[in-house]
Amino acid sequence: HPADVTFSQIADAAYQAFSTTGQVRFLADKPDIPDNVFEPDSALYDRLAWYPALTMRDGLRKIASDLR
Q1: Distances (CA, A) of 9 to 30, 39, 43, 46
Q2: Distance between CA atoms of 5 and 9, rounded to whole angstroms?
Q3: d(CA 64, CA 41)
Q4: What is the pTM (predicted TM-score) of this model?
Q5: Residue 64: Cβ within 10 Å count
Q6: Using an 8 Å Cβ cutoff, are 60 and 17 in contact?
Q7: pLDDT at 29
Q8: pLDDT single digits (tens) 23-51
Q9: 38, 65, 67 from 34: Cα distances, Å
Q10: How does residue 65 score in pLDDT terms, banded at 50, 70 and 90?
Q11: Coil, strand, or helix at residue 37?
């Protein structure tokens, strides 16, 4: 997806979509990892002339709704 989101944002969206709670904990004794290790690249979307219509948050909500 072309939008860059952090791991914390993904977890928060999943908690909301699936009506659950949780807590993201980062281990202080471990080195930070990048949220997105890939450079933005829209080449595939450009070649297909198609771009995602849903945000990650809306996609998770749809998945949760389909499972209910």
Answers
A1: 20, 19, 25, 26
A2: 6
A3: 28
A4: 0.68
A5: 16
A6: yes
A7: 94
A8: 888 888 988 777 666 777 889 889 999 98
A9: 9, 30, 31
A10: very high
A11: coil
